[in-house]
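re: ur msg from earlier - yeah i can do the pyridoxal-5'-phosphate complex, just paste it... oh wait u already did. ok heres what im feeding in:
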Amino acid sequence: MADAVSNLQAVRSKIAAAELEARRDAGSVTLVAVSKTFDAAAIRPVLDADHRVFGENRVQEAAEKWPDLKAAFPDIELHLIGPLQSNKAKEAVALFDVIETVDREKIAAELAKEIGKQGRKLRLYVQVNTGSEPQKAGIEPTEAVAFVGRCRSVHGLEIEGLMCIPPAEENPGPHFALLEKLAREAGIGKLSMGMSGDYETAIAFGATSVRVGSAIFGFR
Ligand SMILES: *Cc1c(COP(=O)(O)O)cnc(C)c1O
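and the outut:
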């Protein structure tokens, strides 16, 4: 199997081609390299290849490997893409630069409190459960726009984007289209959607960032 750096270059080329195909500006899509389950030694070459935007799905795992890497590369941008428990909000606010999984009132309240206390500037996304899957995190599509409004009005949190993970067995296109529609209704410009199997499709539907793991780092 090819190494992570050549995989990264290949993914970047495919993103550039998908931007062109969708008549989007070159460089308008951010690649979030999802490094969950891979250790610092596996991540280091990707940093050395000048990539700086990474995603992790567990606060604990990220807290074990990222502080040292962030000290070595201060311009790293770390995204939390997995569910957040309220008892981890403090640690998450201290470590992450972007939290993509705001999905309920309690988490919004907890994040607002910690952001205030720590004086950090975080960028926030609301996760939408576009397939209404019972086992999946994310707010229901019918509640998403109102929830974004309450994040602002009740908690003072500016929501920058929406994020979704379509059901594994379904055609992702309708889910990406739904997320784009909800973002428009909520007056939000950023869309985090698309993973290794469908990021080019997501770009066609307006993704502004894609979260790609196994296509870069290999199988988990
Ligand atoms: C693991 C994960 C990804 C990356 O998945 P790949 O299929 O390996 O690209 C993207 N988003 C979320 C929320 C994930 O948990």
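cool cool. The beta strands are 30-34, 53-56, 77-80, 98-102, 123-127, 159-163, 190-192, 209-212. ping me if u need the other ligands too
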